[in-house]
Amino acid sequence: MSWPTFQQLRYLVAIADAGSFGAAADDEFVSQPALSAQIKELERKLGVTLFERSVRGAMLTAHGSEVVERARVVLREMNDLVETTKHDGDQLRGRIELGVIPTLAPYVLPDVVRAFTQEHAGAELHIRELQTGQLLESLRYGEIDFGLLALPIGSEEFATASIGIDKFVLALPKSHPLAKAKSPVKLDVLRNERVILLEDGHCLRDQVTLICELAFSEPSEIQATSMATLAQMVAAGLGVTLLPECAVKVEAGPGRGIVTRKFAGNSPSRTIGLVWRKSSPFAEAFQQLCRSISLS
């Protein structure tokens, strides 16, 4: 039997992800005729048609979908095989890819990077900002080595470890009546407020929505694209929001037009942690990194 080559499997997955032969060829830095020839050879070896070709792009056939999923596993395992060479005793070396969600990147990432570089001076850390779903997908297929995100992730597929608890505070415009209060506020104050959320795709949106439901509050239809925009909308008087404490110094510091209030009692919070593949050869290094991080 003639086996598919590693390159053919890479091209196959690239086309599935890009949606067309032309876009995949660009992503793989190869000419489209060369890529097409490799896929035709792969189809010949497997004895099946993998793509339905049309002017709108390339659509996977039923056989193609199954082969792509198996090819992803092979590529991921090959990636882990190569990754095992990035060890030098307990030290990591070479290029290490970290994914981080946008609602943590500006606030917690510096602590993680500082701890990582202190422990693994010979490694070259590359950082990609991804929403939670994208981050887990990239991790699944070996595009990143580990991730920084909010836990839990609702999946037993990956290994995770907490690095800290991040409480939520109520963020108000300076003109708001509650802005002059000194004591913590009760969660039920949200019932009478217009609570602004981040747009769909951010896990922070889901967390704040759940908190609003606990307070019998209906979130506003107004949405922000980022934490910075969210804070600016609050400062402009468009509503209130819940900010994680890690973001307060940056988004609600002096001169930003925002006042924050802690919640009384058992404050709502999120857990911050790292995630990696259970099969990762760096699992112990990531565990040790979690023990070394001290969130400020």
Task: Provide the CATH topology of the largest domain.
Answer: D-Maltodextrin-Binding Protein, domain 2
Q: What share of residues is helical? A: 25-40%
Our Rg estimate from Cα atoms comes to 23 Å
Total separate domains: 3
* Mean pLDDT, all residues: 89
Count of individual beta strands: 13
Class inferred from helices and paired strands: alpha/beta
- The CATH homologous superfamily of the largest domain corresponds to Periplasmic binding protein-like II
Number of helices: 10
Low-confidence stretches: none
The CATH class of the largest domain, by name, is: Alpha Beta
- Measured between the Cα atoms of the first and last residue, the distance is 58 Å
Order of helices and strands: HHHEEHEEEHEHEEEHEHEHEEH
Major beta sheet summary: 7 strands, mixed
Q: What's the CATH architecture of the largest domain?
A: 3-Layer(aba) Sandwich
Q: What spatial form do the alpha-carbon principal axes imply?
A: elongated
Beta content comes to 15-25%
